[in-house]
Amino acid sequence: MKIASFNINGIKARLPRLLEWLTETRPTVACLQEIKTQDEGFPFEEFEKIGYHAIWHGQKSFNGVAILANGVKPVEVQRGLAGEPEDEQSRYLEAEVHGVRIAGIYLPNGNPQPGPKFDYKLRWMERLRARMTELKALEIPAIVTGDFNVIPTDADIWSPKAMAEDALMQPESRDAYLRLLHDGWTDAIASHNPNGGIWTYWDYQAGAWQRDHGFRIDHALLSPELADRLVACGVDKDHRGREKASDHAPIWVELRD
To answer: Which residues are recorded as binding Mg(2+) (predicted)?
Structure first.
C-alpha cells in the first residue's frame, strides 16, 4: 500500500501535472493540499477517468484538502478539527481506506510572526495534537500527512540562517511538532533519512529550484501500528522540475499489507 501527499498549489492550475503524477506513480491513496477551490469546483470527474475516487473539503481561493483513493471511495470520518468552532478554514480531512485511517492536513503557515497568524498556527497545532491523541488511543493503523509548514530541524533546510525569522522555523513551531513525535508518532521520512538533506519545497523565487535551495515541510507521521509496516518512503523530486509545477514535490510512504 502506497500513501502519498502532494501540496498541489491550485488544483485547476496544476491539473495536468497532478494527473500526470497520479498516472505515473499510482499511489493507493493521495492526500492533496491547497486545492484552492470551492467544493462545487472540484474536478472529481477527471480523477474518476483514471480510476481514482475522491472526497474533498474546499474553500474559495485558499487552502482546501482532498483525499483520492485508487479504485475505492474513501470513507469520510471527519472534516475540520474540534476546539475552535469559528474556524472556517479548510485544512483537515480524515478518512478510512483499506483499513487505514488517513488524515490529510494543511497546517497554517503562520507568517508574519509574531502576530495573529502565528498565534492561530500554534492553536491549530494544539488542536491537531488533540485529534492525534484520540487516534493513537484507538490503537489502529493511522497516518497524518500533508503540508505541516514546519521545518523540524536545521538539517531539514539548505540554510538555517536564510529562514531564521520565518514562522516555519520558530522554536514554538518546532516544539509543537516535536511533541507529536514524543506522543509516539513516527516521522517516516526522517526515520529513513536521519542525516536530513531531504527537501520537499523549493520557492519559485531567486532560482531556489535551480540552486536546490529547498527545505522539508511535507511530512508523514505514522502511528505505532503503521510504523511497523513501513517499507520505504521518498520524495518524487523530479515532478517539481516540470513545466508549471507546484512549488512542492509529492512525498510517499510504502507499507506492508
So the answer is: 7, 34, 147, 149, 247-248
User: Would residue 147 show up in a list of annotated catalytic residues for this protein?
Assistant: yes
pLDDT, one tens digit per residue, over 184-234 is 999 999 999 999 999 999 999 999 999 999 999 999 999 999 999 999 999
Q: Is 248 annotated as a binding residue?
A: yes
- Mean pLDDT (the chain) is 98
Catalytic position from the list 52, 92, 106, 201: 106
Of these residues, 147, 156, 166, 187, which one is catalytic?
A: 147
For the chain, the structural domain boundaries read 2-255
Strand partners of residue 102: 95, 143
Q: Is 183 annotated as a binding residue?
A: no
* pLDDT for position 60: 94
Q: Does domain 2-255 have CATH number 3.60.10.10?
A: yes
CA angle 73–77–79, rounded 5-degree value? 105
Query: What span, in angstroms and rounded, lies between the C-alpha atoms of 122 and 119?
Result: 5
CB neighbours (10 Å) of residue 98?
17
Tens digits of residue pLDDT in 163-184: 999 999 999 999 999 999 999 9
Known binding residue 192? Answer is: no
127: which residues sit within 8 A by CB, 6+ positions away?
81, 82, 83, 84
Q: From CA 125, how far away is CA 250, in angstroms rounded?
A: 22
